[in-house]
Amino acid sequence: MVVLAALLAAFAAAGSYDLKDHLSLGGYIAEDAEAGHADHWLDAHFGAGEPQLVLLARAEGGTVDAEDAAAEGRRITAGLAARPDVTAVHAYWNSPTDELRSPDKREALLTVRLRGDDTAATYASERLVKEFAGRHGPLTLSAAGPGPTRTEIVAQTRHDVERAEFLGGPLTLLILVIALGSLVAGMLPVAVGGVAVAGALLVLRVYADFAPVSILTVNLTTSLGFGLAVDYCLLIVSRYREECVPGRAREEAVAAAVRTAGRTVLFSALTVASCAAALLLVPLYFLSSMAVAIIAVTLLAALCAVVLLPALLVLAGGVLDRLDPFGPLRRRLAARFGSPWHRIAHTVMRRPLLWLAAVGVLLAALAAPALGARATISDERVLAPNSPVRHTSQRVDEAFDARVLRPVRLVLPGQRGRAAARYLADVSEMPGVVSVTGPTGVLVHGRVVDDDAATARRHTGPGGAYAEVVTAGAYDAEQVEHLVRTLRAEKPDPRVMVGGFAASVADTKDAITSRLPWVLGIVGCCLAFFLFLFTGSVVVPVKALAMSALSLAATLGFLVWVFQDGHLRSVLGDFTVDGRLEISTPVLAGVIVFVLTVDYEVFLLSRVQEEYRASGDMRAAVAHGLSRTGGLLTSAALVLSVLMAMMAASRVEVTKLFGVGVAFALVLDAVVIRALLVPAVMRLAGRANWWAPPVLSRVHARLGART
Prior knowledge:
Structural class: alpha+beta
Number of helices: 24
Number of strands: 14
Radius of gyration: 29 Å
Mean pLDDT: 87
Largest sheet: 7 strands, antiparallel
Distance between the termini: 26 Å
Shape: elongated
């Protein structure tokens, strides 16, 4: 079996060797929504829309209108336009408008539209930045925009993950040696995790032929694969050691461990995979490809744990417990203090109402900031303040009017003449609108203030026309998003589309929030179904859902308090605070946390229920279950928390947010939820923990899903 697993892992590694060439760099916004369709239409008909690359040109020692600077600017513009990846270039030197020149005339902009999807545009922008950024005679060019932002996010994230693995690897092995009691046993999760990750990467490679796969799935697959391998190996190895009584054959002990702990692992994996599948409903391929990665690595980690790990245990034989540098210390501590988890359980269950109230107040206080959560999508502000791309973006915002550069765009397919003029005049009179530039010129409060023919021609074509709406608020302000929704609600023609950055934010929020009830419903049903099959109780699934909801609410509240409100910057390092939270990363962090906490819940329940069936004493059963699993769950949570804490040091805010969120949630679950809240609730519920209506009890008895 071990040789077969090694061969299969080698085959999987060979089959996924070119996975990196098939990964995508976008997926954070709802591309198949109205703003995305508007952007594609503008690009196809006018070469307009949101630019993927922005170049800031600064004249050294003069102005951008000086003869030598203007000549160089025209040469650069022509050079950009001639590149096969470029569909349109709007620069000060080929579209001489004041919006593309700074008030002091020392800086000018070149905005570039690139061919292809986010991935193709990002790689194209990377090539163009290498060629054009830097000194060009009297001009110095620096880069900003979505393309360079994505390039820097990916590069920095890779660096952060490599650093986390390099620094976290030895710490992880140290934790495993302490938890499993020997260096030999500590290497078992490494072997199981390696095979599971190799297989999951092959699954992603095959999936990439049919749908986009986010480049960050590889990092998630690796971290989660080894994290789950740790969970599953800790449980099975611990149970194997319990079954190794004097006079019993090693093979019999392994079989007994697989029958008990192995069944728990399989139920846990099925629950996790089913819940993760709900993310496939969200129309952001960043999240849907993450769901595929979670499903694949979870099922493979469980399969390896119940098939490969038993073979490794038999092969290890008597050397399993050797090379334990912490053995003497562990034995002295156990002799002096006993099991801390057993004492914690009894302490909590002596006054369960008091502990329930105290923990409830703590979780409510942590969750309270979540009521003020405000969402946005990621842009250059997620980069470190000293990032070159971030610095250029800040300079563009300071020297140019961002409201003009990133307007709300109205697409008017087939719309011309008086109907379009009336509609645009009405739009210009809406609250919060400064001006509307389109096929009728420039409109302010219903009146034409500039009817330049060139402006009208630029916004009119064979397929229709478009207009740019400049707003009073910042281009990403909530009032602009409200304007987008108003414009969509009051369209005179269903063919009219509203696009731009604010529209993309609105579409992405809607894509997530509209599917969120379905996602939560599926997750709740899957969790309830599998926990019912596992325990035969309808109370336990309700309790598990409530615990997960409290844990996730507290984690979201903590993230809002830190990243939206700006606390703990001196501890976590500098990051941008603008009163909002990037929307997709907390969703992903929540799913990962849910995956792991479900694992921990199932592991604890398996031991509690087993002891309760043997003794009929709920208090003793909870204490026994917590003493048997508390150290294991804490060790498992600590392994991933170490890796996540390394990622919390990232210079990219979304990576920092993910690391902080997952690490905080795991510590919260291990220290507060699992150690304090679960014993209190189970003590209060008593025998009712295992209650189910007679008809469901008969169903459970027939299915025979027992630990």
